[in-house]
Amino acid sequence: MGVKVRDLVSEWLINNVGNYVFTVAAENILGLLRSLINRGGFIINSKFEPSAGFMALVSSRLLLKPSTLIVTAGPGIFGALSPIAEAFIEGDPLIVIATSIIGGKGTRMHQIRDDTQLNTLSNVVKASLRVSNPSNVTEVLTKAYRIATSGKPGPVYIDIPSDLMDLDTTGERKDVNPVTGETVAINNDAVKEAANLLSNAELPVLLLGRGVILSGAKDLAIKLAELLNAPITTTIMAKGLISPNHPLYAGVAAGKAGNMTAYEIIKKADVVLAIGNRFSEIGTGRYSLEIRGKLIHVNIDEYDLGRAYEPYLRIRADAKEFLLMLINVLKGMSIRRRGGVINELRELWSIENRELNSYYEKATGLIKPWEVIRAVRDVFNKGGSIFIGDVGAHRIESFLMPINENEHYVTSTSYVSMGLAVPGAVAASIIYRDRDVVALVGDGGFLMTGLEVATAVQYGVKPKIIVFNDSAYRVLRIYEKVRFSNATESLIKLPSIDFNLLAESLGAEGLRITRREELRPLLNEALNSDKATIVDVHIDPNTIPIPYQRLYGLNTI
What we know:
alpha/beta; 6-stranded parallel beta sheet; 20 strands
């Protein structure tokens, strides 16, 4: 007698992807989930499919490997579409499994037309596959894993008809060797041309994206910068790639929405080497990033090359393979090293820090959001902290928050779907129980997926949820004012909610902050709490994030 399909799937997932499985339990997937539990799987049963998807995405981003998302047919898989699409755009490998009803009589749960799920998902995943019979289960799973982890990582959808789950199969129990990157034939002449440009540049600057992290190329990128004496900037999503204390670190290159040190040094550069980034709209500060020198753009995904900024030289390559080849070529060349770069960076940082400090010195009245960000940074400083940023004005403020070595900063700058922070923080707290996990979320983002705090309580973990409470979609209010000169109250207004009381009803701890004198004491209380904690911080609803004050020339809404 052969093993059942559901048991072969669960065994393969645990052996090759890992124990963590994100889901919302439902009738059609009960057999598979029970099988996973019986084999040692850790089932994180969230309260809403989008939350389960965000949890899987954050897990993948932190662990740098695929995560498993299992949902039911119909409302389950379609409910998870937004985080799946975000994983597709931003490069997060997920193994997404859903049941389907094929050829039913119209009385089966969640029935829709036979290929609707398969065809719909194909638009937002790297591949959409189906287990068509009990004998090809391992083949489909292995193919999905290889596609998800090769090239630019991303989600792969596996459709398993419900009728197959309980059938026996003699399919081979075969594991897969993890694939860390697609082999891409790199153009040697292009690498030599890049080396010539960089070796002869008066001021080359590196712009490093998350692709450098995904390929494990951090040390090589730093080695290249030190070889060239080139300032290092990062994208928003690669914050933490390099220590803020490194003498060549020039900050986050997000145009006027990032560090002004990065903005100025890139503007001065005669050659900019951008590796593993997409030049997204938010990631470039609404395209306010000024690149005046020659741009060399390196990315493993052809689609992402040159879509926003036209490169002088485009190179399709894995970041690690490219850096290995480039450094090897440069070793045999005479490199023109500009003197005084580190002193120039120190002066730019000095100017930027004086400007930032002025915002704190003149803060009066209601708490300003940048005061919250600085207080969070000061309090959560033990090392290894994980910060998850949602979409909203507070996230724009967090672009300027330094991220230290061994810390993580997770947010979105391409797909920018609200609702990431709370479920993401819950997942991070389950995976890293010994670390401080902080969600930075607006009241609007919390209202979407904030009830996942109950999941944190259920699993005994203690993320700290910092809610920027201004009873409004503040960032939308800013955008509307910029475009139309005023705001429509009915479009941006949110109800006034006491998140402190809500926390208690969910079994968490609640803290309420209304005065700046309370910020650090109560954040310290949250840090030391042994429970999931919601910190309800009432902020000035008329403030514009510091980066957007620069970008739009506005001081208040």
